[in-house]
Amino acid sequence: MDETRAFSVLVMVMMMMISLVVFVDSAGVVAPRALSPAREAEALVAVKSMLHDTANVLTDWKIAAGGGRPCGWGLVICNGDGHVSGLDLRNRSLSGTLSPEIGKLRQLRYLFLQHNAVSGPIPDTISTLKMLQRLDLSYNHFTGHIPGRLGQARDILFV
């Protein structure tokens, strides 16, 4: 009888621990796992590929530039761990569309894209950026809906 009771208590404790992990993760307490700098570089190159850069402000967004480390690229802001935490693309004469690959920049806190001519839909993947605090897409030509989950971002201060 004691072994059965001990086993039941052990199972209950394990279930409580699993529930706690799921709760903490869903609450956004745990930072999302960042991609390697090389993967972040690939995501940025994909973003660049869908934008028309008539002012050539994104010319150094190449995998070869910085050895696949985008922290040395223009208009890219990185955190202390060397991950992309911000893009300052405001008023850069950009047009085209915003690539869904933007959602792969999991450590992104700031995305400033205002005063350009970017069009098309806002990618749904933008709502997966759990660390996003400031987002400015104003004065562009976006169409369609605003991703529903975007308004649920825990730390977002400005949209």
From TrEMBL:
Record field: transmembrane:
6-31
Lineage, top-rank taxon, reads Eukaryota
Query: Where is it located?
Result: Membrane
Q: How does it sit in the membrane?
A: Single-pass membrane protein
Q: Sorted alphabetically, which Gene3D superfamilies does this protein's record hold?
A: Ribonuclease Inhibitor
Major place of residence: membrane
Name the GO cellular-component terms: membrane
Q: What SUPFAM superfamilies is this protein classified in?
A: L domain-like
Q: Where is the Leucine-rich repeat-containing N-terminal plant-type domain?
A: 39-79
- What PANTHER family does the record tag this protein with? SOMATIC EMBRYOGENESIS RECEPTOR KINASE 1 (PTHR47988)
* Protein name stated in the entry: Leucine-rich repeat-containing N-terminal plant-type domain-containing protein
Q: What is the lineage of its organism?
A: Eukaryota, Viridiplantae, Streptophyta, Embryophyta, Tracheophyta
